[in-house]
Design goal:
Elements lengths: L1 H23 L10 E3 L2 E3 L12 H13 L16 H9 L6 H11 L3 E5 L12 E4 L20 E9 L4 E8 L13 H17 L16 H16 L10 E2 L1 E4 L5 H4 L10 H6 L8 E4 L1 H4 L9 H10 L2
Parallel strand pairs: 6-7, 6-8, 8-9
Antiparallel strand pairs: 1-2, 3-5, 4-5, 5-6
């Protein structure tokens, strides 16, 4: 019961945080909530989904998604303020064109980086961070290749060069208040399709241990498995992919207070999230967990004062 209370309290604390901000601040542009989400009205849901985005970047974000033909989670910009997709954009979009800022956040987690390279696969507003990234071709047997929908998309992607001259992918998975049940994604007809899709790729993976596949079909490990395979296949097909990489570092951004995700005792392993996932990896140095605050701690706060004030108020 104690663990359950800990799990519930983090998400609830964020609901209360949002409601207090709606009442006491202008962070949501005077939007006082009571909006409709999945046909029900809630005090913490925004009336206008546009108020979910950091105002100085809002229109550019909307244009970026539209012009690059990216599908929003659930089909449109959400009015739910606890969205991890929105949190990722609010933290990173404003710095995406600033090479030094992007370099600083990678240097912070991977000291051997020497350069950050532009991601030219964005046809509109290419920069040093890409959102909802996919490969040029489908390498995961997923059939569809639509950014943000029906295939493995990376929340944010950074591309650089290491001290050894190798090109590096930094796929970033962003979490906020996520908590997961114990659904087995290998069950039923959808599970048969998933097993058929990923089994050979897991067996051929240099990073994923293949002695027990079952763990890869429980969240959040199902997502991490697919992202790992995505990065490996980008590297395997570097001759034909626009983004040509030699290695990857998988970055998992999670608020340190999110005990429901980090400290749940996962039935598939009997351990917490990090310990469970690291035991699945052959090279644990290729996986990094960092909080949003720690990820951005080396970015110039004077230059991005307005952004940091917003992030401190809304998220931190």
């Amino acid at each position: 019961m104690g663990q359950y209370k800990h799990i519930v309290n983090y998400k609830n604390s964020q609901y209360f945080r949002v409601q207090n901000l709606m009442r006491d601040s202008s962070i949501f542009n005077e939007d006082r909530g009571q909006g409709v989400f999945k046909k029900h009205s809630y005090p913490f849901i925004l009336q206008d989904e546009n108020n979910n985005l950091f105002t100085p970047s809002r229109q550019t974000i909307l244009d970026y998604f539209k012009q690059n033909k990216i599908i929003w989670w659930n089909g449109q910009l959400t009015n739910h303020p606890l969205s991890s997709q929105v949190a990722c954009l609010n933290h990173l979009f404003s710095i995406r064109e600033d090479k030094q800022a992007v370099f600083s956040i990678i240097k912070n987690i991977y000291p051997d980086i020497i350069d950050i390279l532009p991601l030219t696969t964005d046809k509109f507003l290419p920069a040093f961070i890409q959102f909802e990234a996919i490969s040029d071709d489908d390498h995961l047997n997923e059939v569809n290749s639509i950014r943000g929908s029906q295939c493995t998309s990376i929340d944010a992607l950074i591309y650089g060069e290491g001290r050894d001259g190798k090109k590096i992918l930094f796929p970033i998975e962003w979490k906020y208040v996520e908590a997961y049940g114990n659904e087995d994604k290998a069950s039923g007809n959808p599970g048969i399709t998933r097993i058929k899709r990923y089994t050979d790729l897991i067996n051929q993976s240099a990073q994923l241990k293949s002695n027990d596949h079952s763990i890869y079909y429980f969240e959040p490990f199902y997502q991490l498995m697919r992202q790992t395979l995505w990065a490996e296949q980008m590297i395997s097909h570097r001759k034909t992919e626009t983004i040509k990489a030699d290695v990857f570092i998988h970055v998992h951004v999670i608020p340190g207070e999110n005990g429901n995700l980090l400290h749940k005792n996962y039935p598939c392993s009997g351990k917490g999230m990090e310990a469970t996932w690291r035991e699945c990896l052959n090279d644990q140095s290729r996986y990094v967990i960092v909080s949003p605050e720690a990820l951005l701690k080396t970015v110039d706060r004077d230059r991005y004062n307005t952004l940091f004030e917003y992030l401190n108020t809304r998220y931190w």
